[in-house]
Every structure is written in C-alpha cells, then in structure tokens.
Amino acid sequence: MRKFTFALVFFSMAFVLAAQSEADKRIVQSFSTKGINTIIVKIDGKIEFKTWQHPKVCVQTSLIPVDAKYRAVEILAETGDYDVLTADGSDKMLLYDNPNAEYIYFKGERQTMDIKYTIHVPEGVRVIDVYRNNLLAVSSQ
To answer: Which of 19, 93, 111, 141 could hold 124 in an S-S bridge, CB 3.0 to 4.6 Å?
Structure first.
C-alpha cells in the first residue's frame, strides 16, 4: 500500500510540474552595461526590477497564456516579436518593447496572454521608468 501511495504522489507531482512548465514561455536576454550610468525603460506592462552585481542588464520576458494555446505562445515567442530592444547613447541605455506585438492571431484565432518582465540591473546604475514617470532604483556606487 505504501508503494502505491508513493507512486500516486510521485506521478501527481510530475503532472503538476509538467503543467507548470507549459504555463508560460520565457525569453531571456542580456545586454552589456559597460560605460552605462542610466537605463531608461520604456516598456508597457508588468515589470519587476531587481539589482545584482553583474555588469549587464538581464531581461526575462514571461508570456503567460490567458486565452491562448501554449503551442501558439511558443511559436509566437520564437518570432522575436516579444524581444526587448535596446539602443545606446553616450552613457545611457534605452530598453523598449516591440510596439508591433499588440494583437496576436494564430491560425485565425485571437490569442491573449499576459506579459511580465523581470529586469535585473547592476547596482549603482540609475533606472528611469518612462511610462510610470518615476525613478525606480538608485543604488550607491
């Protein structure tokens, strides 16, 4: 009986983990911040900022299906439409999302999903969020 219970719990956990792995699609990008003092973020959506000790900015974009088929989300993620774009100028870096990725259709059906960003920025770099019009992080150098 113990073996049966253990096997049942094991398979239940495996099923839950498999379902979670198909819950969202993650795109991870990183950019060097050498010579950068200010990062300007022009991304419309849910953003969580974290600081770290590395000399680069790392952006993790999570595409979370709401009324979308997971396979559609996976294919759409591979197109590059949800990549964060970057532009450098003197000591500043601009991070912005693709403005053309607003409406999503896959095989004639409209797909909806939530997009969440987690952005890791180096300590000591000023971060300005354009859409929320505020200074998000200033760390001592």
So the answer is: 141
